[in-house]
Every structure is written in C-alpha cells, then in structure tokens.
Amino acid sequence: MDDMDRRLLSALRDCGTDRRVAAAARTLSWAGEHGALWLAAGLVGAAADRERRTAWLRGTALTAGAHVASMCVKRVVRRPRPTADKGHEPLVRTVGKHSFPSSHATSAAAAAVAYGALRPVGSQFVPPLAAAVCVSRLVVGVHYPSDVAAGAVLGALTARLGARWMTGGGVR
C-alpha cells in the first residue's frame, strides 16, 4: 500500500507542474481550509432555502463535526506529511504537520453527503466540487492518497450517520 500511495502521489504532484492546474489546486486547497468552503455553503443554503433552513444548519453542524473528528484522529495517528521528493516542494503551506486523515477530504465528503441529501441544489454542485478539493490535496503534495481516502470515508460516514437527525427524523 505504501508503494502505491507514493506512486499515485508522485503522478498527481506531476500534474501540479502545469501552472493552471497548480493555481486551481492551490485555490481549492485554500477554500477548503478548516472546512470553510463547506461551512459557508451550508450557511448560504440555510439563508436561501427557508423551508429547509434547519436541515441546512444541521448539515453544516455535521460537516463541522466531521472536520473536528478528523483533527482528533490526526492527533492519535500522527502520520507525517509527504516529504519533498523528485524536486516537488508542496505547493501550499499547511497548518499542521500530520496528514492522516485529510481534514479537507473529511469535510468535503461530509458536505457532499449532507448537502447532497438536500436535493436538487446540493446533489448537483457539491459532490463534484468536493471531489476536486480532495484531488487538490494530492496535486499540492500535502497528502497521500490513503489520507484522502480515509478522510472521505470518515466524512461520508459521519454525515450518513447524522442524516436522519439532519432531515428532522430524530437520532437513532
């Protein structure tokens, strides 16, 4: 797994040698910092969709909760971020030094699942943007693919487990 992680990371880092790809990856990475993009999207959804305001706010809370959960897992696992190799320095600075799981991927997947349940807007725009944020973390060279995959699973599970509460069906 470790060898495959490194080979995939190297291939995606190579994509960052294109200035346009690097700029897009940096922008997506910056927007996803601390789940800001997803928290803002949830608040906009709550403001724009009065009928489902509570569901949007609960989805935002689930997304924030997933992000916090990933930060807690990072403190336990303490996997170091990828080092610069083959002349590829990371394209962005990071707040922390640990990479597993990717908190960007966690909050992105949580938002995709939570807001995706609030059709049609959430299901049309959030999943592709969430996927792009996940890939951006590989292109900028600050996560291994397994970090992103684990983060996405954590986020999706968190949001899925809270889906009933989010839509007003209670907690089980």
Question: What order do the helices and strands come in, and which of them pair?
Answer:
Blueprint: H1 2-15, H2 19-31, H3 36-48, H4 53-77, H5 103-116, H6 121-139, H7 145-161, H8 163-166
Helix pairs in contact: 2-6, 3-4, 4-5, 4-7, 5-6, 5-7
Please describe what this structure looks like.
The protein is mostly helical and 172 residues long. It contains eight helices and no strands.
Write out key terms for the chains shown.
mainly alpha; 172 residues
Task: Give me a quick take on this structure.
It is built from eight helices and no strands. The protein is mostly helical and 172 residues long.
- Mean pLDDT value: 85
Q: How many helical elements? A: 8
- In total, the number of strands is 0
- Apparent shape: globular
Unreliable stretches (pLDDT < 50, length at least 5) are none
Oligomer: single chain
Q: Largest sheet, if any?
A: none
Order of helices and strands: HHHHHHHH
